[in-house]
Amino acid sequence: MNFRFLTTGHLPARMNMAIDEAVLDAVATKTSAPTLRLYGWKPAAISIGYFQSLEEEIDLAACAKSDTEFVRRVTGGGAVLHEHELTYSIHIPESAALVPNGILESYRAISEGVIKGLAVLGVTAKFVPLNDLIVMNGEMPQKISGNAQTRKQGVILQHGTILLRVDVEKMFSLLKVPDEKLKGKMIATIKERVTSISHFLGREVGFEEALDAVRTGFAQAFPQCTFEAAEISSEEMRHAEQLAKEKYGNDSWNKQR
Amino acid sequence: MQRAIYKVPDGKLIKILLEEEGGSISSIQITGDFFIYPEENIEQLEHALRGCTREEKALTERLEKFQHESPTEFFGLDIPSLVHTILLAQ
After folding, report:
1. Is B17 exposed, middle or buried (0-12, 13-18, 19+ CB in 10 A)?
2. Cβ contacts (< 8 Å) between A152 and chain B: which residues?
3. pLDDT tens per residue across span B9-21
4. Which residue of chain A comes nearest to B41, CA vs CA?
5. Cβ-count burial of A161 within 10 angstroms (0-12 exposed, 13-18 middle, 19+ buried)?
6. Measuring CA to CA, which of A236, B4, B33, B65 is 20 to 30 A from A36?
């Protein structure tokens, strides 16, 4: 199977989510080939899972103060601060039978591309259910990547974050926690349980370096596929701009729960 | 308004917000970091719980009937954990 390989640089949250949806639609109608896309976020943004309550998860005033945007994803899962990271999205027609049908097994199969990409950088990661990639720091498992998947119109869309650097303090300054009294303890726990490529390797790994590695990783994980560099089509871009304006930049979507 | 938060063992976090009237659920919102496929079914699922008495057997039957009529896949939660969280709300 031939994939398009798209890089769309650093974009605002609404546009990033809009492109994922526009590409999904184009892959579903076979207007575009299956697609692997790598991207970043500017300005920083929090995405929340489809089933989360925006106002319960995010401190909107704190976001406004720190110029952090927010967006609801089409995928379930938790709230994520997107800042120093590489994000991937992959769009695979279910009919291609490239990955198993089962949700968990398909997460595992697609995550192999990220795992092999991390290995290129010298990071040994593994998949742990339900949807995380972890590295071992001695005996302590630490999350380095989170992933989320949906299936629409016969297409599997999986997107995920690969942390280049992590700022737990900033994350917690923007997220609401169920019990303010426990916040300090939660920060300490999350700091132990989350890491990043740069922290793990003890050297700064930038966006471009990680991007090349993850592209290589997907090519290794799916040797029967090609990943040909391409540009997003003007039709997809038009559709994405419309979705960014009417859906992902709109309260009726972002605040629906 | 009654609330509950429950972390499903080996699963995700479920948050429930509900109102009761005369012993049955008059409104309910289910949020959290779980996955449900297809996603849009969550609203019909919440709707299906309206009018149900807050009792384990009745809730389980409602949810099983819903899943049978509107095929829905749960990932990171299941019907027993959902029922458990609804019963926890206070």
Report:
1. middle
2. 38
3. 999 999 999 999 9
4. A51
5. buried
6. B33
Pick from A103, A129, A257: which is nearest to B73 by CB? A103
Cα dihedral angle (B79, B84, B87, B90), rounded to 10 degrees?
Answer: -120
For domain B2-88, which architecture applies?
Answer: 2-Layer Sandwich (3.30)
Amino acid, single-letter form, for residue A255: K
Q: Which residue of B has its CA nearest to A50?
A: B39
**Using one digit for the tens of pLDDT, what is the confidence trace for A111-139?**
999 999 999 999 999 999 999 999 999 99
Cα-Cα-Cα-Cα dihedral of A129, A134, A138, A140, to 10°? -60
* pLDDT over threshold 90, residue A50: yes
A147/B contact by beta carbon, under 8 A: no
Task: List chain B domain ranges.
Answer: 2-88
Domain range list for chain A: 2-254
Q: Which chain B residues have a beta carbon less than 8 Å from that of A56?
A: 15, 31
Topology given in CATH for the domain delimited by A2-254: BirA Bifunctional Protein; domain 2 (3.30.930)
Asked if the C-beta of B30 comes within 8 angstroms of chain A's C-beta atoms, the answer is yes
Q: Of A50, A130, A151, which is closest to B76 when you measure between CB atoms? A: A130
Three-state DSSP class for A150? strand
| Residues of A whose CB is below 8 A from B38 | 151-152
Looking from the CA of A225 toward its CB, the CA atoms found within 13 Å total 27
Report the C-alpha gap between A97 and A127 in whole angstroms. Answer: 21
Q: Find out whether B14 and B45 touch, Cβ atoms under 8 Å.
A: no
Would you call A115 helix, strand, or coil by DSSP? helix
Pick B36's closest partner by Cβ from A76, A78, A178.
A76
